[in-house]
Amino acid sequence: MFKKIFAGFVVFTIFVQVNAQNDFESLFSQGRAAYHQGDYKTAVARYTKALDFKPKSVAAYNNRGIAQKHLGNFEEAIKDFTAALGIDPKHASSYYNRANTKHDMGKFSEAIADYTKALSYKPKDANIYNNRGVANRDMGKLEEALKDFTSSLGLNPKSAKTYNNRGMTHAKKGDLQSALKDFTSALNINPNYGSAYYNRGVTNQKLGNTQAAQNDMKKAKKKHKVQHPKYYKDLAMKGKFKNSSFKAQEKTFKAEDADFNKNPFDVQNKAFDSSF
């Protein structure tokens, strides 16, 4: 009799565990789908329910953290990445995503520390080097930033974004010729890169290459218009860009599009996917 009861208990336990795993996987998949559809609130809700069935899921904490970051809930995102690292202290993606979040919060020193930790587990990740370079540049550590961008390009020499970032750093140092070369390299890789045209235009203007600067600014406007049609429709409604001079365009870019000349840290999707 006891053996039958024990056997029945074992079967019941296995049944519960299987059901819990199935429920977790279903909710986790729903969270992924919602995230990729841009429905971050639903993604957070689904990952939260998934964690009820599997409270030590590193991927669920990490992915919920990314969704929280997209919602602007930076403190909640930090908690999720930290929770993931409490379960797996070697989870590079959580260090990376926590670093991105801290960078957005202006905590550059802490972000650099997390990028460095991520690199100790993923030393050949070009994106981590690139983003640490941006954080170093934002801290004013230009030499360290240049080293990071160069390391990133050594791992991924086809990254237009990293050439653009390194060019901006050279420009900040006053090395305009090196900056010009990097912006051109970025455009050789991606001829539709509006930010690189804009940055090269600014650099050409500073070097006295007025006609080249004008040409670059026109291309910057054209490429950016294709990528952000609503933004330019709004500008047209406001009567912007009627004056096509370099100075007028430069002023409008800076005033109207604060994100245009920044690294958008849009590589979180890669870390998101690699977590599964």
Give the key terms.
15 helices; disordered C terminus; 276 residues; mainly alpha
Total number of beta strands: 0
- Give helix % range: over 70%
Low-confidence stretches: 9-13, 231-276
Following the backbone from N to C, one meets helices and strands in this order, namely HHHHHHHHHHHHHHH
Provide a count of the helices. Answer: 15
How can the largest sheet be summarized?
Answer: none
Rg estimate, integer Å: 23 Å
- N- to C-terminal distance: 44 Å
Shape: elongated
Mean pLDDT equals: 81
Content-based structural category: mainly alpha
Strand content: under 5%
What do you see in this structure?
With 276 residues, this protein is mainly alpha-helical. It is 79% helix and 0% strand. The protein has 15 helices and no strands. The protein has helices at residues 2-36, 40-53, 58-70, 74-87, 92-104, 108-121, 126-138, 142-155, 160-173, 176-189, 194-206, 210-227, 229-238, 246-256, 268-274. Helix 8 (142-155) runs antiparallel to helix 9 and helix 10 (176-189) packs antiparallel against helix 11 (194-206). The chain is elongated and about 95 Å long. 41% of the residues are buried.
What's the quick description here?
The protein has 276 residues and is mostly helical. The chain is built from 15 helices and no strands. It is elongated and about 95 Å long.
What secondary-structure arrangement, pairings included, does this model have?
Layout: H1 2-36, H2 40-53, H3 58-70, H4 74-87, H5 92-104, H6 108-121, H7 126-138, H8 142-155, H9 160-173, H10 176-189, H11 194-206, H12 210-227, H13 229-238, H14 246-256, H15 268-274
